[in-house]
Structure formats: C-alpha cells, structure tokens
Amino acid sequence: MSQTQEFVFPINVWDKIITNLTGSSWINLQRTCKFFYFQCNIICVKNLEIVPNDGNVKKRIKKPMMKNLKLTSDNKSGIKFFVYDKLHIRTRRPISSIFARIMKCNLEELIIEYHNLTWNEYFFLVDGGRIKRLSLEGANIKHSNGDSILLEDIMSQIPETNDIYIFPCYASTETFSKMCLLPRKVKIDNLWLMDFDRNFKAFEVFDYCKVVLNQESSFTISFAAGIANDRNIHDFQMEFMEAAERNEWKCEKMFASALLSFSVEKIHKTYQPIVPAMIPMTINRMILSSYK
Prior knowledge:
Blueprint: H1 11-19, H2 23-32, E1 42-51, E2 65-72, E3 80-89, H3 96-99, E4 102-105, E5 109-113, E6 117-118, H4 119-126, E7 133-137, E8 141-142, H5 151-155, E9 163-167, H6 175-180, E10 188-196, H7 202-212, E11 213-223, H8 230-245, E12 254-259, H9 261-271, E13 281-288
Parallel strand pairs: 1-2, 1-3, 3-4, 3-5, 5-7, 6-8, 7-9, 9-10, 10-11
Antiparallel strand pairs: 11-13, 12-13
Protein name: F-box domain-containing protein
Organism: Panagrolaimus davidi
C-alpha cells in the first residue's frame, strides 16, 4: 500500500528529477505517492493553452495532474508547470511570467500563433525531442541581437516531426542544401514552408523533397510579395516537374502541382492587410509516372 511522503525534497533534488523526467515517468511518480508533493506548487499538464485575457477564461482549481489547462497571458500565479504533450500559444501579448514557470517541456505538439520567441525559448520548448507536429504561424524566432532564425536552424531541432507548418520562412542561399544534411528519424507527411524571403532554384528544393518526403507526402511552398511573381512560380513548377520526369524521384504514380488559392484567401480575411500577398504551390507525390 502506498504512503504519502511526509517531507519536502530540497529544490536542487527537484531540479535534478525534473530535468531527467518524461511526462509518463512524472505521472508514474505521482501515482506512487513517494516522490511527489503538491505543496511544491508543481503540476503536470498534458495540454497547455495560453490565450489573451478577454474575460471569458474561467479560473479552474489546480490539481497535481491536469489533462487541459488554459491560462491567460497575464497569469502571475506562483504555480510551476511540467507540460508533456501539447502547448498552444495564441496571444501576441508578452508571456514571460508564464515561460519562467514552465520547468520542463516534453511536447509532441507545439503550436504558436502570431507570437514571437527567442531562440532560447524555442530550444527549450522542443528540447524533449518528441515533437511530432510543429506549427509556427506568423511566429518569428529571433536571436538576442534581433536577427531572425533561419529555417535550417529551426528544422535542426525537430528530427521526429512529420507535420510541419512554418510561416514566414527566413533563409540563406544554402538553406535547402544544409537541410538535406540534417539527421532525420522520420519522413515528413505534411510540409508547409510559407512566405519565403528569397527565391530558390527548383532543383535545390527538389533535392530536399527527395530526402525528407514520404511516398504520399504533401509539400507546399510560397514566397513573399515581391520575391516571386506568377511567371517565377510557373517556371518553378515546370522545372520541378521536369526533375521528376527525369526519374530522379522514383514513384509508381503520377506527379503534379496546383495553386492553393484558398491559402491566400484565408490569410487575408484574418490578418488583412499586414500580411503580404502570397503565391502558394502544392507538390504532391501521389501522381508522377504519367506526367508528360
């Protein structure tokens, strides 16, 4: 029969435990009643959502283990968090007081909507190495000097992610060649790289797709306004398909590309006019061999 622990661990012991725990092992410790003491103000949260304070978020009684927790951006309680499955940030307001109280992340899903992060914050959130889905919509990740983090650096930290949406994308002339060399543990099922700040040769992007995509993966790329026009996009599509036709990309089915007009419509209805026009292109490996 389990028995409640009657003393509090020294803080350095807690730090050591938390640094080396996964979400499941933390839960197991709680259930044994041997190593968890709620008076330390640490709770385990499966899904944490951080939202603006619009007056509609009801306060909830905090428990040692919670499946879902919604916090407003101005939350300043003294409770610390272990987030072990999903983190969704959908506020533009500063959340430094909440970040300071997240002791560890062991996430599978990270969704950031129009909230900027520092490189250290991003590294901390993905450090568990379990991210399966990453969505950075309107989220800029920056160095301490204000420079935007390049796409290859963002991708270098998520080798197990198979569903990726990044908008906008900052790149160098070597971005795709560098990403080809990044170690990956899984192929990518859905890859959306939106609003690039520079143009690329189709073969550079094609070589990367061969390395990271599955047999039936979906890939979407777009360029910021002023970077590419209709003619540039058409040439890009044709060059990409010519590379596939040369059998550089083995596949039993056909290959084609299509414009995603709905993406432009969705973004401008929601964030008009601060988001520049985009020309998205989807490339799907599901059709290849019959292309002429």
